[in-house]
Every structure is written in C-alpha cells, then in structure tokens.
Here is the input.
Amino acid sequence: MRWVPITGGETSIRETIARIDRTGGRGVVVDGQDRPARAVLSERLRTAIFEGATPDAPVSSVVDGTAESGVESESNTDAGLEGLTDGTTSERPGAAGTERASESNARAVETVLVVGGAGYIGSVLCRRLLEDGFAVRVLDPLMYGNSGIAALEGRDRFTLYRGDARSVGDVLEAIEGVDAVVHLGGIVGDPATALDPRKTLEYNLHSTQLLASICKYHGLNRFLFASTCSVYGRTDNETGRCAEDGPLNPVSLYARAKIQSERVLRDLADERFAPTILRMATVYGHSPRMRFDLVGNVLPAKAHEKGVVPVFGGDQYRPNVHVEDVARAYRDCLTASFEDVAGETFNVGSNEQNYRIDELATVVADAFPDASIEYHDDRTDERSYRVEFEKLRSRLGFEPTRTIRDHCLELRAAFEADAFEATTATRYSNCATLESAPSYEETDRVIETDEASVREVRDESTPIEAEIGDQRSGGTR
Here is the structure.
C-alpha cells in the first residue's frame, strides 16, 4: 500500500487524484496543519466526483465532509484502511454514483477518442468511424509521421490532438466531452520494444495505467484496449486453440507488457468502469500508415520485389486478420450493448485464418505466380499458437470478410501500379524508424528527411521473422 502525502488540504480533488495515479498509490494523507493528518482513499475521491463534487474543490472538502456531494468524512485513518488489499478497496459507490454510471452506460456513443489514431490500425479505424457517423478525436504523438491521418485533417467531426498518453494534461484535454476511448497507443513489435525496455514500459504499460485511471475518474465506461494474441506465446498445438480464459505463455517484453496492462485494467474495473480487451490476431492489409514489417505484408512484398517467399521453420502457427476487419470489430464493440462487452476479453480474428507459416507462404506464392517459396531450416521465432475466435462471433456476430488471398491480389495490383516506394524504406518499419531516430521524441528527423535517406535499405541478409517480431499492430505506429 502506498499513501501519497499532500501538504495542506487546498490541493484540488483533480490534482490529488492525478498525484495518486502518477505514483501508483491507493490513497492520500492530508496534512491538516492545526489538526491531525487524515487519510482518504482514491476510491472515495472518485466517488465524490461521481456524486457531484466539483473536481476543482479542495481535497479537504471531501475529507471534512463539506463537499457539494455531501460525502461523509473518514472517522479515522484506520477506517480508511479497513478491508483494503492491493487490488480492491472496501469503498463502494453510493446510489447516486451507481445511477450516474447506469446513465453513462446507456448513452449512445457519439464522440470517440482514438489514442494512437494516426497508426496502422488507428488510421483505418478513424475512417470507419467517420463513415459510420461518429465524431472522432485522435491523440497521437505522430511518432511515425502524419501520413495516416493527413487526409482527414480539416474534415467535419475530426480533431487531432498531437500529444502523448503519458501526459496528464494531454489526456485531460483530449477526453473532454468524449463518450468512449479506444486505446491503440504504444510501441509495437518485438524488435521495436526490445530497443529500449524502459521506454517500452513507459509507452505500453505506464501510459495505459494513467489513461485508464483518468477515464475512470471522468466516468468514461466505454474503454477499448488493444492487446494481442501474442500473449499466448508458444503453445502445444496438439492441445487445440487458445481461448480467452486459457493459459498465457508470453515470450517477449511486448507480450508481457500487454499482459500487465490487461491486469492493470482488471484491477481498475468496477461497476462504473469495465474496460473491453481485444486481443488481435496477426494483422495484415493496406493502411494509410502502411507497414512492411508485418508477416502478412512483407511476404507479398518479397514475392513481388525478389521473386522469393522466404520461410524460416514453417510449422509455426499464426492467426491472421485483415486491418479492415479489425476496425469493424472495434466499431462493433462501441455500438454493442454495454452489458455484452463490459469487462470482457475477445480474441479478434477467425478460426479459418489460423495458418502455419508454410501454409501462409503457399497462399502468397499462389497470388504471385512468378515467385517461389524458399525454405530455411533455421527458425528465428519460436512462437506458435492457434487461437479460438468463437466468443466474439457468438457474442456480437462478428465475422471477418477479408482473406489473405484477397489481400495479396490487392497488394499485387498496388505494386504493379507503383503505389509504393521501396517497401524497405525506414518509414515502413517501426523498429527501423525508432532505431534511426536520435530519440523516441525526435522521430521527425527520420520521417521528414529527404527521400534518399528515407529509402535506406535494411540488411537483406536478416531473416524476415527477425524483423517481423510481433504482428499485432496499431496505435502510434
């Protein structure tokens, strides 16, 4: 248990909660100056807000029982601690808070904040939501440039906040007036996350805790979190497909950080805040912020440019899903009955697209007749998992409509029309972009450099799987 000291009681309730969230604490000790110090739980402060207390009111108004909500004061420090554990508190919302939550749950979603909306999945999702009549806000540091959303700027119902989910101020500005939050942000891919583990934890774990805590504080119950099927890691494929309630076996920092983020969200969950977790299969397909460091995109690129589809190992299983279908899954969760998705975890994909790598290579080669499959005995990625997707289908009627073959034929037409510059350009790879930049906050120097530098070709002797890493994509990517 960590208690955050506050000097005096004039600090606002808003700032007090922010301090607690930044330090990972559970409550605050208020120094009463001329009276004994008093303790109040973080949950009590949030309940006061839900019951009508003004966020800018001094925290002492809650402790002293003089807040607009009429919250009773803590009788003593022990009363505030009683029944508290690392994951739960004894404090529960009053009737007013529950009623407020019910009203929020029933309200139709009109404005959606997409954190990481300029990324590979985010830029597709934003277009889907706009087409379906939603107002869309994006919070994104534009780590990989603005190509994903440049065409949307200036459109009605679209707003870009260039900012960072690690910043309390940026998050508070972006969530004002929204009805739902989709969190796609973070550093994606095993190679990219391995470059700087400390930064990975900042962007992928700590920012999730901060963002979710603020959303809970503001009563934003519709919170969708982008996780990955890579949390299943390496499994015995003879045991069948991995379901949402099955064991997890992560083999990378990226997957472990996603698991920890999922746990953070479950710890925060209650009747007023019930996040939905979407574990995505390997994503492929065309996006305004295109990536060629994903197996479903890079194999067709190799087939077109080199006439070879390289396979390392080949018997590893991967689930696959098109980025357009992923966007539909998020849309369906936003429009579904709150009770159908609240607190749920869904695998996103289809049973039919659980492919072995060598099977995937065969589909690619069939779409590029001039290409041949090149097998290598050495394997650079030991992950292998088949995934069960029935839960999302039965709960929301979700069925992917796009296939790997459809995608390969579309890419072949795009390549033949010279729709892309060299697919090995730095900007198409998360890892290459971060590795080339002076810092994660200065990727502009890579993105905005002249074309000769941006078209820097990566080492072709490096096996494909070594660069692909994790295939879930989205967010600030």
About this structure: DSSP finds 20 helices and 15 strands in the chain.
